[in-house]
Design a protein that fits this description.
Blueprint: E1 2-5, H1 11-22, E2 26-31, H2 35-47, E3 52-56, H3 62-76, E4 81-84, H4 99-127, E5 130-135, H5 138-142, H6 148-168, E6 173-180, H7 193-202, H8 211-222, E7 233-236
Parallel strand pairs: 1-2, 1-4, 2-3, 4-5, 5-6, 6-7
Helix pairs in contact: 1-8, 3-4, 4-6
Bound molecules: NADPH dihydro-nicotinamide-adenine-dinucleotide phosphate (NDP).
NADPH dihydro-nicotinamide-adenine-dinucleotide phosphate binds at residues 6-13, 30-34, 58-60, 85-88, 108, 135, 137, 180, 182-183, 185-188.
């Protein structure tokens, strides 16, 4: 079984790549700017006796994504599981958000998901099976003040997931998304200690989530056990949004 995980050089994507590798998958791990971090992941996997194939592509570049998926298929054959995890955040008032910033958030969070999905779909349709797992966010469900561009892009991920689930279901492909709450990664390092503590207190389970919490949910959605689940938003958020 082959999985392609985007944005796997750190954070949630890195953990998903490692978990799938440990579970016996052939893992292709996408990255863009963080070459040294990806090199560390490849080495860590090797120490643990697994092989991870690093594949570089800027997901905002549609042609580069096509070449990346071709590279994965040349090495491993068709992709069984695609995890559209790569994403960027933007914390700004909407009136301070530049057109370029708005476009960049959508280019990576939405266009990248579209390009990767479109590139792997022919292989999945041919084999009448596949799993697509998209990373949304609690802000895509509920909207976040000062995160309008990010929230809108993550709401688009949910719309994409639900529509594609209907379109691809007859081909034996499930499409779901995970909407994490606050997870301890570099993405949240911009938040002040006070803001992070406030979010922790707002979370009914009174803690910040871990990358493992999200990776386990992704692994479940990819498994045979989740075969009758499609078009869903799995909220891995400690109850902060219900
Ligand atoms: P990080 O910021 O830690 O990592 C983001 C990853 O995305 C990196 O591996 C980065 O790779 C990759 N990436 C960014 N731009 C591109 C690009 N143009 N092409 C390819 N890869 C790119 O994020 P998290 O691990 O925290 O988040 C992962 C996903 O989960 C995101 O979609 C995020 O929106 C979502 N999420 C996270 C939450 C959290 O609290 N952390 C909460 C809700 C959702 P590189 O550096 O190599 O470019």
């Amino acid at each position: 079984m082959t999985v392609l995980v985007t944005g796997a050089s750190r954070g949630i994507g890195r953990e998903i790549a490692l978990l799938f590798a440990k579970k016996g998958y052939q893992v292709a791990a996408n990255y863009c700017r963080s070459g040294p971090e990806m090199e560390k992941l490849v080495q860590e996997a090797e120490h643990q006796g697994f092989t991870i194939l690093p594949v570089r592509a800027d997901l905002a570049d549609h042609e580069a994504v096509k070449r990346m998926v071709q590279e994965v298929e040349n090495n491993f054959g068709a992709v069984d599981v695609l995890v559209n995890n790569a994403g960027i955040a933007l914390q700004k008032l909407v009136q301070d958000t530049t057109w370029e910033e708005w476009r960049n958030v959508f280019a990576i969070n939405v266009d990248g998901m579209f390009s990767c999905t479109q590139a792997v779909l022919p292989g999945m349709i041919r084999r009448q099976k596949g799993r697509i797992i998209n990373l949304s966010s609690m802000w895509g469900v509920t909207g976040g003040s000062c995160e309008v561009a990010y929230s809108a892009s993550k709401a688009a991920v949910i719309g994409f997931t639900k529509a594609l689930a209907k379109e691809a279901g007859p081909s034996g492909i499930t499409v779901n998304c995970i909407a994490p709450g606050v997870i301890a990664t570099q993405m949240n390092q911009r938040l002040s200690k006070e803001d992070l503590e406030a979010l922790r207190e707002e979370t009914p389970l009174m803690k910040i989530g871990s990358v493992e919490d999200v990776a386990e949910a992704a692994f479940f959605l990819a498994s045979e056990k989740a075969g009758f689940i499609t078009g869903q938003v799995l909220q891995v958020n400690g109850g902060i949004v219900i």
